[in-house]
Structure formats: C-alpha cells, structure tokens
Design goal:
The complex is a heterodimer. By secondary structure, chain A is of the alpha/beta class. Chain A has helices at residues 10-22, 34-43, 62-73, 88-96, 113-124, 132-140, 153-163, 168-175, 179-192, 203-212, and strands at 2-6, 26-31, 48-52, 78-83, 102-106, 128-130. Chain A has 2 domains: 2-130, Rossmann fold, CATH 3.40.50; 135-212, Winged helix-like DNA-binding domain superfamily/Winged helix DNA-binding domain (Arc Repressor Mutant, subunit A). Chain B starts with a helix and ends with a strand. The chains are: A alpha/beta, B alpha+beta.
C-alpha cells in the first residue's frame, strides 16, 4: 500500500512516515503544502493520503480543501485528515461529499502506531474514520429531551463505534461480542432513534452523525 | 380678597393711629412720658410697620413677611390704645387688658426677624423659637398677673386682688426672675438664628438680610451705650439722654423700611438680564457660562447641570452625575426645557425662588448657550465613558494574558517538565532495566504528553476558537452549544460569513452569556439565536435561570464594552426569578 503525507512540519512528516513504514505501509512521497501534495497525487496517484488540516500559506483549512479536491478528482484514493483540534463541523463537511474512503483524526493519535495504521488502511479500503473525540462531543451534548437516554449502556457503546465509522465486524471485536449480537444492537438502536436502517457500514456513519448533530 | 383686606387693614391702622393721637393729646400730663416720645413709639412705629408691610405684601403676596410687618404695626397701635385706656380709665381692668397684650408687638417682631426674608420657618429651631416667643407674650403676662403683686408690674393703684386672688407675692421674685431669664434666652436664641442664617446664606439672601441686620445692630449698639451711660452717669446731661432716645426712635421708625428694602433687594435687578444677553453674545470659553449666570443672579453658589437623555440623569460640565436638591432644602433647582424635554437645570440658593420670574428670564436668555454647553457636556460624558471602557478593555486584556500565562505555567508546562524528567530517567536506565519496565516508563511519558496536548488544546480554544475563523459564527455557536454543561438550543445562525470583528464579538457575547447562565443563573435551558436584521446582527441569548444579573458586574460590563467598541448596543433583561435575556445589536455593514 502506498500513501503520501502532507504536513508543513518536517519532523512530524518524517515521524509519521516512520510510523507508517513500521506498520508495513509504503510512504511514496511527502509534501510541505497542499499545492505540492496535489501535484504529487496527480503525477502518481497513491492508495491514500494523510493531510494536516492547517498548512501554508494561511494555516487555516488548506488541508481540508486539498482533501476535498483529491476526493473529487480521485474518488478511489482514501483521504485521512489530521488536525490539532477536532470539530464535528469539519467531520460533517468531509462526510457530506461521500462517506467512503475518508477519515478525520486528532493529530495526537499518531502516537499510537496501531491506531494510525488501522485508520490509514480503513480509508484506503473505502471505509470511514471519525475521531472518538468528535463522537464524544456529539454524544456528550446536553439535551433537554435526550433520545439517547432511551438507549442501554451497551447500545450507546455500539452507537459511538458506529459513529467512528467502525464496521459490525470491528465493533464485535472491540466489544468482544458476537457479530449476531452486534447486528441486534444496531437494529435496536435504529429503531429506538427512529432512524432508517442503513445496512451499509459506510453510509450509516453519516446517518448516525446527522442524527447526533441536526 | 387680598387687596380689600389690605385696604381694610390700612384704614384700621389710620383710624387707630388717629385715635391714639387724640387720646394722647386729651390725656395731657397724665401720660407720664413726653408727648413726642409716645407719638413716635406708638403712632410712628405703628404706621411705619403697617405702611411698609402693606407695600411688601402687595409686591410679594406669596411671602408672609409683609403680613407679619402689618401685624407688628397693628399690635403696636392696639397696644397704644390700651395704654391710653389705662391712663384715662384708671381702672384695674384696663391695666390687666393692657398688660396682657403689652408684649405682643415684640412677640410678632421676633417672629418677623426669625423668619425674614422667607416669611416662613424652614428649620426646627425657627419653629421652636416662634412658639416659645409667643408663649412669652400673653401667657407669660397672665402668669405674672396671677402670681406677682400688681405694684411690681407697674400698677401702683391696683388692689392686690386684681384677678380675685389675695395674699400674693409669694412667687413674685421667682416669676420675675424666670421671666427675665426667658426673655434673655429668647433674645440670645433670636440672635443665634440670625447669625447662623447670615453665615449659611448665599449672596442673594445676604443682600436681603443686610439692611435689617444693619438697622438692628445700630439699634442694639445705641441702646446698650445708652444703658451703660445711664449706669455710669447717675445724672446724665439732657442733651445726651434726648440724643440717645431720638436715635433709638429714628432706628425704630426706620426699621420697617429696612425690612422693605431687604425684601426688595431679593427682587434682583432686571438690568442683569440685559447685561447677560450682551455677555452671552460674545463667545464664552467652556465652563464660564456658570460664572456669568452666577453673577447675573448674584448667587456664586449657582451650578449648572445638563440633561443627558441616554443616561436619564443630570451631569455637570465635566460629565459627573448631579443630584437635584430636595424640595425643602436651602437649595432649589430651576429646570430649563425645550419642547417639553429637559435641557438643563440651574441649581441655586432657594432664596432666588422668591423671584421666579427673574430666574426664568435669565434662564431663557441663556438657553441657547446652555443647550450648546449641554452638547459639549454630552460629548465630554461620552468621552469619559470611552476612556473608562478603554481602560477596562486594556485591564481585561492584561488579566486575560495573566490567566493564560498561569494556565500554561501550571498546566502544560508543568507536564512537559515531568515528561522531560521521566524521559531523562528512562535514558539513564537503558540497558540497566528490563525492556518491559522501559516500555512502562515510556507509556507513562506518552500518557502525560497526551494530557499536556489536551490542556493546550483547551487553552488555545479559550483564547480563540479555531472553528470561528475557519467556519464562521454558525458552526462556532453550534460547537459552543455542544460543549456546554447545560442544554443549549441554537435556533438561528446567519447563513453567510460576516466581518470577523462582528463574528468574534457575537461569539464572545454568546459564550459569556452561556457561561453566566451555567455559573450564576442556575439555568436548565438556554437558547441562542443570531440573525441578520436590517444591517445588524442581532444576537439573543435567553435562559430560564434565576435572573437578577448585574449589568455592571465585570462580565457583563466587559461584554457591553466589546459591543460598544463596534458601535453596537447590549441590553440585559434580567428580572428576579424570570430568567435572563441578553441581546446584542451589532452593526455589520450592508
């Protein structure tokens, strides 16, 4: 698997490169800004790109814009956006263009080799990855009438993992449950929250997040 | 009613005077004193007071001074009639009647002096004096008649049982001593009242007190000198005695004119208005208007206060708030209006209220200039407010920087130091410990690092939320709502981006209001809306908390300052127990 990395901090790029290499992922190229990344991608499309959201020249949302352009130009390339801060708003923007092959992670996660490699593999494979912190913020929101109160503790755990973009398989592994049990929980959640069942692992992310952030 | 009453009193005085003259002439040598002396003390003084009093009364009907002067004169004339009655009738009854009323003229005169020039008592001391003073007239005379031997009171022919009581003079010495003492106390009290009045009086009041005081002092000095001479020279030369008597009589007759003059002097000179108009025509330096008006009204204590409609209060030329005097104090206020709305107030000595027409004339003449000064005062007040708010903003900025520094120092920096220490220890133990122990040490360092990163993230968000500049007010408000410890509904957000200053201020209003709702108001639900409305961004934050928010507390004050910096308005509606609604109107261009 080949990935390209874009971040204006050389030290971070190198470090992330070594982490990915250690996870068996080939780093095809590194870029210091969004323009360079786009050029590299066009020249030789990789399986996935990892971009920092804040890059030169304005250090605001260059990475986000680059991600959206890459997804428009090369839908087959997985895009993982990293950010020093995570905002549900950004996650929603990324997902609105399509939920497959997109991810949004807190930059701190790169410290966990397994987690970042897993995330890159998932987006490269067409899955979606949403940072647990985004999900935590959405689930933690105080509401006057909270439909989440109607869920059981287990169901809330399943809901959170769904919102992170995990598949039923991944959820069952995480929670040490049988895939059948997980399916049951998912059906129950959709019924209780009055959501239309979305059997597709990827598209249900948006349904769940949209429910949490109307 | 009043003119007829005055005519009747005038006629009564004339008749009483003439009858007195006739009786005095008829009585001949029996009267005991020289005819001239009696004519002057009775008829001269009586007519003088009545005449001057009637003039004062007709000029200033609302001031009781004139009526009191008439009363003094009439009492004196009545006293004369009774005195003549005593001489002619030689009856104890006549003596009793005369004796009862003999001190009434002095009583009314004391009253007149005590309340001059207002014509009414304004202090408790004055009221006490007036009552005590009247008690020392008829009631005291009655006590004396009852308890003192008539001979000692001046009736040598009267029998001892004049009022049907025999064997008296048991208390005579005591009663006479107490009478003398109380008269001395009353005189001292009256002097005290006059002196205090003079000391506390402003220019206008002194102008009216002066003639009365002057004649009074002359009277006192002449009388005292005469008494001293009598004591020193047992047999004074006739010239001296006649001279002193004449001086006292002249002063007594002239005194009413002094009262009249004093009263007239509070009617200030109308030419002041003309002079004022000329002075106002020249450009006045700021603040001089007050002095010019003070001169025109002869009241150096005069103060101008300007009305500020947006503050609903009067302020002085420097922009400081001014309280209007209470209704019954020494100070009075004349409020100047333009189209019914207050423009300014002149605060002056209450004595000027005796001539409201002149004060009005002066005020009307000065109105344009006052209006002009008011605008200047308004500008100065605004400037002062801007200065204060600028100072507060700077102070707030400093405090905020200190807070950030403290948080960095106590939080992230502290953690980084301990991570550095942990890594140093791990490095020194390479090869000395097992790989497993090394992994634990490194994991601990990594965990500490995650906490430091989290703290830095929160701190940075507190300084400036990235989402606001990156995505705009709407997403930032939703994010704010999602992080709030109490349920928040965002009901409206502007569909488009706005100038960053507007977005930041709006966000700040919402986050501060939300923090207040959570921290102080014990709210259980908050709603936030931000809408474009006619070139303005209207930010409303309402909660269902306990209300009673203090708009001058540091938090809301800071909000108001930030909103004012954009020329916006902040309103806080926070009735007790009815929740709090904070509304900010922010101009945002087109």
């Amino acid at each position: 698997m080949r990935v390209m990395i874009a971040d204006d901090a050389v030290l971070f790029r190198e470090g992330l490169g070594r982490v990915l290499e250690a996870g068996g992922i080939q780093v095809a190229a590194q870029a210091g800004d969004a323009e360079r990344l786009l050029a590299l991608v066009r020249a030789d499309p990789p399986d996935a790109v990892v971009v920092d959201i804040r890059m030169p020249p304005t250090h605001t949302r260059e990475g986000l814009d680059a991600a959206q352009r890459i997804r428009a130009e090369h839908p087959q390339i997985g895009v993982l956006v990293l950010s020093q801060y995570v905002e549900p708003h950004h996650a929603m923007q990324l997902l609105e263009d399509g939920t497959s092959g997109v991810g949004y992670l807190l930059k701190d996660r790169v410290a966990d080799v397994a987690e970042v490699v897993d995330a890159v593999r998932r987006v490269a494979g067409g899955g979606s990855v949403i940072d647990p912190e985004v999900v935590a913020q959405l689930l933690g929101r105080r509401r006057t009438r909270d439909p989440l109160q109607e869920l059981t503790e287990r169901e809330r755990q399943v809901l959170a993992l769904m919102a992170e973009g995990r598949s039923n398989q991944a959820i069952s592994e995480r929670l040490y449950l049988s895939p059948k049990t997980v399916e049951g929980h998912v059906r129950s959640i959709f019924t209780r929250l009055d959501l239309h069942a979305a059997p597709d692992d990827h598209r249900r992310v948006l349904a769940v997040l949209a429910f949490l952030r109307p | 009613m009043n003119p007829r009453l005055r005519l009747a009193l005038a006629l009564a005085a004339v008749v009483a005077g003439l009858v007195n003259v006739a009786l005095l002439l008829w009585a001949g040598d029996d009267r005991g004193e020289s005819l001239a002396y009696l004519l002057i003390t009775i008829v001269g003084v009586g007519w003088s007071f009545v005449g001057a009093g009637l003039v004062a009364w007709s000029r200033r009907p609302e001031n009781r001074t004139g009526a009191l002067m008439v009363a003094v004169g009439l009492a004196q004339l009545l006293n004369g009639l009774l005195f003549n009655g005593v001489i002619l009738a030689r009856e104890p009854v006549a003596f009793v009647l005369w004796f009862l009323l003999a001190t009434l003229p002095e009583g009314v005169l004391g009253h007149l002096i005590a309340v001059f020039p207002d014509g009414r008592a304004t202090t408790r001391l004055q009221r006490f004096f007036i009552i005590a003073n009247y008690a020392a007239t008829v009631p005291l005379a009655l006590v004396q008649l009852l308890l003192v031997e008539p001979g000692r009171l001046g009736c040598t022919d009267c029998p001892n049982d004049i009022l049907g009581l025999g064997g008296r003079d048991r208390y005579g010495d005591v009663v006479l001593a107490v009478s003398d003492l109380s008269l001395a106390v009353l005189t001292a009290l009256l002097l005290w009242i006059v002196v205090t009045r003079w000391r506390h009086a402003a220019e206008p009041r002194r102008r009216s007190l002066a003639p009365v005081a002057l004649v009074g002092i002359v009277l006192l000095i002449v009388y005292m000198t005469g008494q001293t001479l009598k004591a020193v020279l047992p047999d004074p030369p006739l010239v001296l005695e006649v001279g002193f008597n004449l001086a006292i009589l002249m002063a007594l007759v002239l005194w009413p004119l002094a009262f009249l003059a004093g009263l007239a002097r509070t009617r200030l000179d109308r030419s002041a208005v003309g002079d004022l108009a000329v002075q106002l025509d020249e450009a006045l330096p700021p603040g001089r208007l007050e002095q010019v008006l003070a001169r025109a009204l002869h009241d150096p204590t005069l103060q101008l206060a300007y009305w500020l409609a947006d503050r609903d209060a009067f302020v002085d030329a420097a922009g400081h708030p001014v309280e209007l005097p209470a209704a019954d104090s020494d100070r009075a206020a004349t409020i100047l209006r333009h189209d019914g709305a207050p423009v300014a107030a002149m605060l002056h000595d209450a004595a000027l209220d005796d001539d409201p027409a002149l004060v009005r004339a002066v005020a009307a003449t000065a109105r344009m200039t006052i209006e002009n000064e008011r605008l200047q005062a308004e500008v100065r007040a605004q400037l002062e407010e801007v200065r204060a708010s600028r100072a507060r903003i700077v102070e707030f900025g400093d405090a905020e920087r200190r807070r950030v520094e403290r948080n960095l120092h106590d939080g992230a920096q502290q953690r980084l130091v301990s991570i550095s220490l942990a890594l140093g220890i791990a490095r020194s133990q390479v090869g000395a410990t097992s790989e497993q122990e090394m992994a634990v040490a490194l994991d601990d360092a990594a965990a500490e690092l995650r906490l430091a990163l989290g703290e830095l993230r929160e701190l940075a968000r507190g300084i400036h939320p990235v989402i606001l500049s990156e995505a705009g007010l709407g997403p930032a408000l939703v994010s704010l709502a999602e992080r709030s410890p109490i349920p928040v509904t965002v009901t409206a957000v502007p569909p488009k981006r706005l100038p960053s200053r507007v977005e930041e201020t709006a966000y700040y209003v919402a986050s501060e209001a939300l923090a207040n709702a959570a921290k102080h108001a014990h709210a259980t639900a908050v709603s936030i809306s931000a809408r474009r409305l006619e070139g303005q961004l209207l930010v409303e934050v309402g909660d269902d908390g306990i209300g009673g928010a203090d708009p001058d507390g540091s938090g809301l004050r800071g909000l108001a300052d930030r909103v004012a910096a954009l020329d916006g308005h902040l309103r806080v509606h926070s009735p007790d127990g009815k929740g709090t609604r904070i509304t900010a109107e922010l101009p945002c261009g087109s």
